[in-house]
């Protein structure tokens, strides 16, 4: 039986940094998974009984970022840029779309992987849930929609 990894080679989920241009505090407690899926295109050629299958269009899932609510309003202001563009107030796509880096760190705090989301923009902002009977921290979240991602490192 082959050994595929040592305990030191598996990485913790908690070690990450999110870098968003124009957002001062990007300390997020949670980042949802990155995923991409290729559609399957099937067609029959020349009367074949078995379909020819090929990859089709790619679909990239949205990413949810969550953090404890603070006085920092950079995420909300970024969402307002999108809302202003959607209402026809004249912002071009380039004004609110940004490249976002999700940096995975190893156990020593060194960069292990750097994922870059291209043309990302907030499609949803949630200010959090307030409950006077709870001692929990208010969690705000933002959902990012983007064109595609790459693995830089």
Report on this model:
This protein is mainly beta and 153 residues long. Helix content is 11%, strand content 42%. It contains two helices and nine strands. It is globular. It starts with 15 loop residues before the first strand and ends with a strand.
List the helices and strands and how they pair.
Layout: E1 16-19, E2 30-31, E3 36-43, E4 52-60, E5 63-68, H1 74-86, H2 93-96, E6 98-105, E7 111-126, E8 139-145, E9 148-151
Antiparallel strand pairs: 1-6, 2-5, 3-4, 5-8, 6-7, 7-8, 7-9
- Structural class by SSE content: mainly beta
- Report the helical percentage: 10-25%
- Shape designation: globular
Rounded average pLDDT = 85
Number of E-type strands: 9
In short:
The protein is mainly β. It has two helices and nine strands.
Descriptors for this entry?
7-stranded antiparallel beta sheet; 2 helices; two-stranded antiparallel sheet; 42% strand; mainly beta; 153 residues
């Amino acid at each position: 039986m082959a050994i595929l990894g040592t305990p030191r080679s598996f990485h913790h989920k908690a070690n990450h940094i999110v870098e968003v241009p124009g957002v001062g505090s990007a300390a997020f407690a949670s980042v949802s998974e990155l995923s991409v899926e290729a559609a399957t295109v099937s067609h029959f050629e020349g009367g074949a009984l078995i379909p020819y299958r090929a990859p089709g269009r790619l679909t990239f899932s949205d990413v949810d970022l969550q953090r404890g609510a603070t006085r920092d309003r950079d995420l909300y202001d970024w969402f307002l840029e999108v809302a202003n563009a959607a209402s026809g107030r004249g912002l071009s796509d380039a004004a609110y779309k940004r490249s976002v880096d999700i940096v995975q760190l190893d156990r020593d705090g060194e960069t292990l992987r750097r994922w870059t989301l291209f043309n990302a923009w907030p499609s949803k902002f949630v200010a959090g849930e307030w409950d006077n009977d709870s001692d929990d921290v208010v969690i705000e979240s933002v959902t990012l929609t983007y064109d595609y991602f790459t693995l830089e490192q």
